[in-house]
Amino acid sequence: MSQGRRPARPGRAATPARRPPGAAALALGLLLLSACLPRLRPPPPELPLDPAALLAEVRAAQARVQTVQGEARVVVEGPQGSGGVDQFLAAEKPGRLRVESHDFFGNVLSVLAVDGPELFLYDARERVLYRGAASAANVARLVPVALPPADLVTVLCGSAPVLDGLPLDASPVDGALRLTLKRGDEAQRLDVGAGAAVLRARLSRLGAVSLELDLTGHRPLGGAALPTQLAARAPLQRTALTLRWKSLEVNAPLDPALFRLAPPDGARVVDLDATAP
What we know:
This protein has 277 residues and is mostly beta strands. It is 14% helix and 43% strand. It has helices at residues 23-36, 51-63, 136-139, 149-156, and strands spanning 67-78, 81-92, 96-102, 108-115, 118-123, 128-133, 166-173, 176-183, 186-192, 198-205, 208-216, 219-221, 224-226, 229-234, 239-250, 268-271. The protein has a 14-stranded mixed beta sheet with strand order 7-8-9-10-11-14-15-1-2-3-4-5-6-16, covered by helices on one side. It has a two-stranded antiparallel ribbon with strand order 12-13. A hairpin with a 2-residue loop joins strand 4 (108-115) and strand 5 (118-123).
């Protein structure tokens, strides 16, 4: 009998080449890593990729909301500590505003009212009515983020104040288009979502962030998508504010008397210097 190689058994497959040590572990690691990476959502398909056209869409969406009023819970964190307060809020574009703060029992603590160029601030505990120009400095006496009244009205109406600058770019981010605006040494970044609603905003000057806004919990109200929560941060002042609407009415007629204050009986009246700290 021949001593040659024994013939292979019928049906027996050849032994496959063995993978180098660690190859299987590497493949498994890459698979697990890809599973852990967040999947970025595409931006809404109806939004234009042209920066100028996207800016026009944002302004048109903002114009759909002219008035808001309702009750909210506001929490402030800053260098002096943190605390929360219930507020009644009313705003009418372009520059009418009422911020009424209440204590735990519903008693009025303070009222800020702005009617165009005039500002009124009543301190119920001290029984003092302050009057002055509707400037960002005077608004900051009650609201921890120093904004011109018209910008604060825009925020309460569910959007971000838009920098009057040149639209430079519109790029996809997670579930939105990021619109970049530039004016001199100021730059703004707006993340725009469905319906051209602003979801996030960041304003900076000379590279330092001065104001950040997050607008969340959008739902249809008054013919527009309104956020039910907002967060504002002023990093330079180390101040943060969050607002959660408990009730909200949109585009309803507002009583003009909301935005003016007559001196209550026995109250002391102080005229504010717009440049005072």
